[in-house]
Predict the 3D structure of the following.
Amino acid sequence: MEMSEFAVVLSSYEAQKALLTKDEFTGRYIWPFSRDRSFHKELGIIFSDGKFWQTTQKFTVKTLRDFGFGKKSSMDIVIANEVSELMAYFRKGLAETNNILTIEHNFDLSVINVLWSLVAGFRFDYDDPIPNQMMRHNDRINEALNFNNVYLPFPFLRHWFPHLTGFNNHMKVYTEVQIFMKGLVDDIRRKMDPDGEPQNFVEVYLKTMDAQASDPKTVFTGGHHYFALLTYPCFDEELSESKHYYY
């Protein structure tokens, strides 16, 4: 039975630095809900632990830095371009609606575009229905993970009363998100030059995954990759080749 966990809180910078720089304290707590959506395993960048997480984290940071993530000059250019696109969209909208503009997910999309340009090598237009669908999925995830939900403090209840606690709806929402994200990744693979240099993080991961496909101990799997993509654009996560895309 899953119950609440005990925790130790480090309340000073000195204590955090002393402990968190040691290998024996690099473990990460994994929520039961994370295992529910990753085939009862610890997968992904955010919801994983140990060597799996260390290998993936190092690969992700290094690869994203190669494409400019964290470099002030590169990031400044990407951000400035996105601000220009956002302002142009606002001006167009104001001109078409007599200076009345409804702002829903525009600012969210501008952030996603900056990250997505580094992860996938392209950005979305503000009129594109695909990112708007992504944002609606994200809203539904937040609704499913409402902190008023009784199974957050009492995780075991989700198995006893899956409908009453909303757990069934929770998994349904994640399945929809995963199928949606898998379609985006599959589209990148179709357009990727298998013999050329990778142009973005997605392509680097796909090529690494293909190169290590025969290694049973590899951390680079199809499911793990899709979760990595879901994590970075939305800061939410994992897909797999199975019929049901729960993670």
About this structure: The two ends are 21 Å apart (CA to CA). The longest helix spans residues 72-96. Residues 11 and 72 are 31 Å apart (CA to CA).
